[in-house]
């Protein structure tokens, strides 16, 4: 596949499959950090040696089939335009760090985009697997398969006491970061999330924004992930996160029920106001668009809004990000141009769904 094929669609193929608890859990992700033995980590290495790693990956892994992952393709960061890299960030296929800071970086992708292997980010390799809904066990199994396949030919840095060695001490041990992306609008509206967050942190988990560390929680989307990678087994890390996510799903459902029972008119007004703004506005900023899309998504999940699929909102949440807007425009856009184009895309997409209902 070409790079164009990966950046032309807002929704990755894996996102089109509806997973368990998908009205609240948008996606599950597992990432494994690995480094080559006896080779300096990327932060202490030079361009020439890092580029040799990419060349080796390109020769031995690009175009190959890795277990359940067929037709892997490697793309070098140096060969991409800035906006193409930002689109991959918006689709969560690479990190902002790889896009912005790694001159000798690359990414290995499979066709449905459920797998990406970042090369020469903070570590030599970051194996990432994604699935829709609440599927942490399945995602972990896929990441392990890719890890095993790479380790057949590569010798990873490993210490008998410390486990896998990584650039950042917080990843030493299993090198495992497991996370889920959750849509929690009712907990935000009822002001319950702020009371829950400290308890989550005390359990060794962290709550971040839509693009991970340092990012803002837009559209009531929150990424819940483990902080501890040392002193626990991979299975225990996954089990602890699953337990907390299960409780968060229950709390969100209870909060939604409370809103329906005690504030239904307020909730309906909020949902339909947001729908009206999205359907008719001529300009909309990114932050407002995410919030309005979140409101409508909640209305769909609570069966207040009929005829719209929640997946359309997932699509629009990516499609209206700056990178995608500029990719479709074929040029760099000023902020106000993006606001106008964002509103136009949302209007047209919602109108298309309405036309389908009329037929």
From TrEMBL:
This is Protein-arginine kinase. Belongs to the ATP:guanido phosphotransferase family. ATP binds at residues 27-31, 92, 126, 177-181, 208-213. It comes from the Bacteria. Keywords: Allosteric enzyme, ATP-binding, Kinase, Nucleotide-binding, Transferase. It comes from Salisediminibacterium halotolerans. CDD domains: bacterial_phosphagen_kinase (cd07930). It is an enzyme of class 2 (transferase). The keyword Oxidoreductase does not apply. One of its GO terms (cellular component) is extracellular space. Catalyzes the specific phosphorylation of arginine residues in a large number of proteins. Is part of the bacterial stress response system. Protein arginine phosphorylation has a physiologically important role and is involved in the regulation of many critical cellular processes, such as protein homeostasis, motility, competence, and stringent and stress responses, by regulating gene expression and protein activity. One of its GO terms (molecular function) is protein arginine kinase activity. One of its GO terms (biological process) is phosphocreatine biosynthetic process. Residues 24-255 form the Phosphagen kinase C-terminal domain. Its EC number is 2.7.14.1. It catalyses: L-arginyl-[protein] + ATP = N(omega)-phospho-L-arginyl-[protein] + ADP + H(+). The gene is mcsB.
């Amino acid at each position: 596949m070409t790079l164009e094929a990966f950046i032309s669609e807002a929704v990755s193929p894996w996102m089109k499959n509806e997973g368990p608890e998908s009205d609240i859990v948008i996606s599950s992700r597992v990432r494994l950090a690995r480094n080559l033995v006896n080779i300096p980590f990327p932060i202490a290495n030079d361009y020439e040696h890092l580029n040799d790693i990419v060349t080796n990956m390109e020769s031995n892994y690009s175009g190959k089939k890795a277990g359940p992952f067929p037709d892997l393709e490697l793309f070098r960061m140096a060969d991409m335009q800035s906006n193409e890299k930002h689109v991959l960030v918006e689709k969560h296929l690479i990190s902002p760090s790889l896009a912005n800071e790694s001159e000798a970086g690359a990414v290995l992708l499979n066709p449905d985009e459920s797998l990406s292997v970042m090369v020469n980010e903070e570590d030599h390799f970051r194996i990432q697997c994604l699935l829709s809904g609440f599927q942490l066990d399945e995602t972990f199994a896929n990441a392990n398969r890719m890890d095993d396949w790479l380790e057949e030919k590569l010798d990873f840095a490993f210490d008998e006491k410390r486990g896998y060695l990584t650039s950042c001490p917080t990843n030493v041990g299993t090198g495992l970061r497991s996370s889920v992306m959750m849509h929690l609008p009712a907990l935000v509206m009822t002001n319950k999330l702020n009371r829950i967050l400290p308890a989550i942190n005390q359990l060794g988990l962290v709550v971040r924004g839509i693009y991970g560390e340092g990012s803002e929680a837009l559209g009531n989307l929150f990424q819940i992930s483990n902080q501890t990678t040392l002193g626990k087994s991979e299975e225990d890390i996954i089990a602890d996160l699953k337990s907390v996510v299960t409780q968060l799903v229950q709390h969100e459902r209870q909060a939604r029920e409370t809103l329906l029972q005690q504030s239904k008119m307020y909730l309906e007004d909020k949902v339909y106001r947001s729908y009206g703004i999205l359907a008719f506005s001529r300009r909309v900023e990114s932050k407002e668009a995410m919030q309005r899309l979140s409101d409508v998504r909640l209305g769909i999940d609570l069966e207040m809004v009929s005829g719209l699929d929640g997946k359309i909102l997932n699509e629009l949440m990516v499609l209206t990000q700056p990178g995608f807007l500029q990719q479709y425009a074929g040029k760099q856009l000023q902020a106000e141009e993006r606001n106008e184009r964002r509103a136009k895309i949302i209007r047209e997409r919602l109108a298309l769904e309405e036309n389908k209902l009329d037929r």
